Structure formats: structure tokens, C-alpha cells
Amino acid sequence: MIAFLEGTLVTGGTEAIVSVGGGVGLDVKLSALSAEALPAPGQPVHLWTHLAVREDNWSLYGFVEAEERAMFRLLISVSGVGPKVAMGMLSRATGRQIAAYLRTGDEKALIGLPGIGKKSAARLVVELGQRVPEAGNQEDMDAAGGSMEGMGSALAVLAAMGLAPAQAEQALLRARQADGEIGQDLEKWVKAALQNL
Question: Are residues 135 and 41 in the same domain?
């Protein structure tokens, strides 16, 4: 998986192109909020990334902040929420704002985001409400960002190992309750989840 990329921004916007050297330019999809935070074309850029692979398409998604990528990965772990919808949500609200909506069960705010209807909002609150940090001070949110990143990545690994999403999620939640200091260490998350099956 491509964790991040560094290079020179060729064109900005939500469909940015980044030259990474060796005559290679990558097409990177960004949320509107991340696109606004990009430097001017010709300047160096660092983006956290997520590679979405389908049978007929490989898409590279970019994020200025690791926290935004963590929220993106949590959102796409929910049935019916694909990368396009997740990016639409992150174009209107920051990862912190979405985390607050999920944690407090604010379905009305979620429905106001692109691609989210009443049923989708309810599903997001049920599936993610307990997996996101408390809407509180900056330190709590920063500390939880690593946890969100680790849980989202571990969920994908466990799914690839053949675990049902609900079973994998419950194991990860038990692991988080047992040790809130796992952070974003993917290997620790997976081991802890397997021990909590």
C-alpha cells in the first residue's frame, strides 16, 4: 500500500497531479478541503494516501492531514459508503467535525453532507459512533487520531483474513477497551483483535 507521497504539485484542485520524480506523475483525488490547503503549483507537497483497488479501476486518494485519511478509512468501512461518498463528506466537514457528529449521534448534521440520506446517517452512527474520539479538547482528538488510523487499517487486514466485518469490529473494540494505548501500530491492533475473538 502507498502510505504517502512527496513530490512537486503540477496541478491542484480535487484532481491534483503530483510529480514524484523519474518522469512519473500521479493523479490524486482530494477532498475540497484538502485541495484548498494545497500549495501553489510548482511547490513541494506531502500527501497521506489511500489506494482503492477495484476490478476495473485503481484510484489514489490524497489527504493533507493523516487524521482526514483515518476518518476516510473509517467511513468506507461502513457498507454503502464508498470512496466517492466519503470524499464528498470530507469536502464539506473536517474529520473532527464528522467524528463529533458520529459520537453524538447527530444524524441531522450527517444528512446535510453529500451522498448521505436518513438510512445512511443512522447506519454510520450505529457502526462508527463508538469508534471515534469524544468531541473534546485538542489533545484528546489528536491522541485519538492514531487510534482511528490503526483501527481502520486493522479492520481492512482482518477482513482480508476472512473475518466478517461485524466480528472484526467487535474484536477491535474489545482490544481498544483492553488497551487504549495501542495507537496506530497496525501489527499491535491485529494481534490484539485476534486475541479478543
Answer: no
Same structural domain for residues 53 and 95? no
Residue 27 sits in a domain whose CATH number is 2.40.50.140
SS3 content of the chain, % helix, strand, coil (to 5): 50, 20, 30
167-183 pLDDT per residue, tens: 777 787 777 777 766 66
- Predicted TM-score (pTM) of the model is 0.68
Domain span holding position 20? 4-63
How many domains would you assign to the chain?
A: 2
pLDDT at 180: 62
SS3 15: strand
Question: Which residues contact residue 68 at a Cβ distance below 8 angstroms, ignoring those fewer than 6 apart?
Answer: 31, 33, 34, 48, 90, 94, 95
List beta partners, residue 44.
8
Comparing CA positions, the residue from 154, 144, 183, 153 lying closest to residue 49 is: 153
Distance of CA 81 to the CA centre of its chain: 12
Residues 40 and 80 in one domain: no
